[in-house]
Predict the structure.
Amino acid sequence: MGFFMSKSLDESLKKQQEFMAANSALQLERQMLMQNEMRQRQVAMQIAWSREFIKYFGTFLGLTTIGLTIGALKRKRPGILVPIVPLSFIFAYQYDLAYGTLMIRMKDEAENIIDREQTLLQMPKGVPTFESIEKARRARSMFFIQK
């Protein structure tokens, strides 16, 4: 009788372990999906910000170009047009970010860094461990106790 009970408990324990493993996998999958969705929303907000910025900056650049051109023609000094050069570089960068392929090129470069330059991605003193965090926590709590 004890053997059958033990076998039943073993089966029950095995089923519970399988359920817990499946539940953990499902929870991890949900967390990964949520993190990816949050990342997508952040990138979408960055692109939307760039598109909104380009409207205002484009208007500013247009008015500035007209004003500086009129000023250069009236005073007969072409040096007045010099500020248009850096402003147009800023405009081109923002336009590329908002409507061009800059995000794709940045993603490709990030993948290149991950694949070929792993040492740049390593954290100083390595990845924190439970022991290092606990050691720092204990040292901090001792500091506050002494005060």
User: Anything to note?
Assistant: The mean pLDDT is 91.
